[in-house]
Give the backbone structure.
Amino acid sequence: MSYFLCNFAFATMINKETIDKIMDATQIVDVVGEFVSLKQRGTNHIGCCPFHNEKTPSFYVSPSKGIYKCFGCGEAGNAVGFLMKHEHYTYPEALRYLAKKYNIEIEEEEQSDEEKARQSERDALFHVTEFAQKYFAELLYEDDLGRAIGLSYFHGRGLSDEVIKKFGLGYCMDEWSNFTDHARKSGYSDTVLEKTGLTIFKEDGKSYDRFRGRVMFPIFSVSGRVLGFSGRVLSKEKQAAKYVNSPDSDIYLKGNILYGLYQAKNAIVRADKCYLVEGNVDVISMHQSGVENTVASCGTALTSPQIRLIKRYTNNITVLYDGDSAGIKATLKAVNLILAEGMHVRTVLFPDEEDPDSYAQKYGSTQLQEYLASHEENFLLYRMRLVSEEVKRDPIRKVELEKEIINTIALVPDTLERNEYVKQCAHLFGTTEESLMRVLNRTVSNNVQKAWKEAEQSARQQHTEGDEPVAEPQAEEPQPDNEQFAAPIEDKLSQCEAQEMKIVSLLVNSGAKEIQQPYKDENDNPAVYEFRVAELIVSELNADKLHFDNALYQQIFDLYDHCVAEGTPLPDANYFAQCQDIVMRNKALSLMIDPYKISDLWEKKGIYVTKPENRLFEDVKESIYNFKSKKLRLRMEEIDRKLKQESSAEEQLMLIAEKCELKKIQVKIEHDILNRVIV
Ligand SMILES: [Zn+2]
């Protein structure tokens, strides 16, 4: 049956026993926690989703089930799926990562030529960037010219060998195709050399090294893979750009990458703060001075995706730049983006002509750390002070500058904090709080409306893309039907939503649970009937040939139906977590992690609610009954409406006959639910 195709084919390279070992050892909270700051809540851990932009956490990780689920954007999966999505690993790569993390030796099976050939293109890109990084780093120490030119440059900038190695720095020879020739000899294709931008191909067929004659700064992913490079020119040639970066590719998107984050992430979590500097050398120099929680955006103005990368580890960003820098305007833009992400921004202003690197070189690490600690101030207050001084010099710009500040204040999510800024602002500008407040409120309300519109639009898009309906799984109990508020019958999807969801929720959460039901056999002797929840649901629904309106629920039901019929193991959390049908995976997992689980709240208060197994049986029976009776009623209503319309006598008779049939079933199920012990 086709549903089984949705599982990943297990990679033939790593044998099954090893995969099992890895899966057994994997703790999802450890794995996700490397990339997302998680807090325990009840039996789950929660954090801000790394896959979409959010201010309040809706990303849930269930250690017991080994899965994660975001109730904001719908992403869900297990540890392997998380790594594949987040780190862009292939399945075997994710397994290798976990094996390394948990010290599991990988036993491999022979890889065929065909399998080798099938290695993804992304893989090939990663391989060549890793190869290039090693080559450039080797030249720096092993080659005479590399030492004389590259290494002496880094040493000249005060970088120690230790930190040079930590950041994997290197040198690309000042020859046309030294690297390209070497890469080709080692078997790398022109295609990957071109795609990663390491080699530039001219139309006349000539090719040369993009980074020739430059010192190399490799750019790592959060997990330490080489994504691309930034190369700094050493020659005095005027026309050469000071820095050249890898072009965007399948693995390198400059707006989504922060320089130094791989080396900085643990320090950021420890300090609960991230320093943002302008250049690569600033980052390295800060690290060398013991301020390891430092990153830089690589060759771009700071982007929202970059800010969200930082937000995974902390809510506090401190921007470091030199006061007279032309980058102030860019910094202001960046600050607005940071505030809009609901984060706190501070700044440290360096003395004239100094930047983090030069300051560290001149005064040493202790002084630098002290300077940072004592000169940090709230960015908005700092900016207001600066602007008010400007207004004193140039009163004509007052209105314009006031507006600029208010626009920034409006981005602060916290109301009390906003009001505090308005107070300060009124004081500095010599304006009344009330008038500023009016402007602020208008701006805030415009922002909110804009955000609403955007959210609505993206929700609509999601819906039309066939994603799950908006209804989320708080409905533990079936919703009471309310005739008065029944939706028009055309809207079939929502009509039985609650009842259908309840059935599917029972399947995915308790399908394999055994229920023991005592009964009297034909000789009136007591006996026990044993069955699994899924068996009961499947046989009940099939008996009345009932279907789900929601195609996704039907698909999940069919899966269980098939397993029950074939006697194969029922799908569990792991099965759905690995399911390649994203819509099905997300739906099933969202039914498994319930963020509103009442029992969690109770447990937090030290009250333990235990659900006896026979309560489960009652629950299943009730749910089937609710589902069936709702279905019947809907169909009967439809018939009534059709009967009122003009139709042939023959059609009318058929409808009446069907209605009688349905009535009989209704009586039967009402009777069954009251009397039946078992099907
Ligand atoms: Zn999300």
Summary: The chain has a mean pLDDT of 80. Residues 49, 51-52, 59, 70, 72-73, 75 surround zinc ion (CB under 6 Å). The CA atoms of residues 235 and 493 lie 67 Å apart.
